[in-house]
Structures are given as C-alpha cells and as structure tokens.
Amino acid sequence: QVRLVESGGGLVQAGGSLRLSCAASGPIFSNNAMGWYRQAPGKQRELVAVITTGGSTNYADSVKSRFTISGDNAKNMVYLQMNNLKPEDTAVYYCNARIRTGIIDRGRDYWGQGTQVTVSS
C-alpha cells in the first residue's frame, strides 16, 4: 500500500521559515509528480506547488518568490522550503503524489495525512 508521510510543520512567527518534507513508500512503479496543497479553516484545498519528475515546477501566485519546491526522484521525496511566511499561510499542508503501482496501473493521486503550519503575526 502506498503511503505518503509529511513532516516539518509547526508554529512560526511572521517572516520566519519552515521546511516541509514528504516521503512516499510502498509499491511504487512510477511517480509522475509530487506536490503540496493546503487547506485553511473554512476554505477549499488549494494547490501550493508541484514538481514533475522532469523537474518542472508550478506555484500558486500567492507563494511565488517565497516558497521553493524540490524533489528527490530516487527517494520518492518532495520538499517545500517556505520563507517569509505570512499569517495567511496558516493551513494544514498536504503532500500529494501521482503514482502508478504497476505497469498496467493507470495511476492515481495519493495523499498524506497533513501537517499543520501556523504563522503568528
């Protein structure tokens, strides 16, 4: 069974930094892309950043120039370096991966359990 496990969340003051990590494990045949989403109270889950196995990245406008996503394909890991954090970045951050578990598997999205990021003003 594929599992995604996040780490690195916590409480930080505005202007501070945090680094999130996510490790995917299990029967992974291929991993096309990994990314981070977040969900604040009362709001819908939104894309934060995504990176493909080829290294292409995409960011939400609200985090461009502050957040950096990176990945380690060999280890099936993805990281999110968050700098100059703002109170509006407060949310539960979820790791996401598009994974195939076998040659005949078309692949689907897998999610981590989420890690809380709280930015105080």
Word description of this protein:
- By secondary structure, the chain is mainly β.
- The protein contains no helices and eleven strands.
- The strands form two sheets. Strands 2, 4, 5, 6, 9, 10 and 11 form a seven-stranded mixed β-sheet that branches. It has a four-stranded antiparallel β-sheet with strand order 1-3-8-7, with no helix packed on it.
- 31% of the residues are buried.
- The model has no long low-confidence stretch (mean pLDDT 96).
List keywords for this structure.
121 residues; mainly beta; seven-stranded mixed beta sheet; four-stranded antiparallel beta sheet; elongated
From the helix content, strand content and strand pairing, which structural class follows? mainly beta
Total count of strands:
11
The residue-averaged pLDDT reads 96
**From N to C, what is the helix and strand string?**
EEEEEEEEEEE
Rg over CA atoms, rounded to whole Å, is 14 Å
Described by the principal axes of the CA atoms, the overall outline is elongated
Strand content: over 45%
- Which spans have pLDDT < 50 for at least 5 consecutive residues? none
First-to-last CA distance: 40 Å
Main sheet specs? 7 strands, mixed
Helix content: under 10%
Number of helices: 0
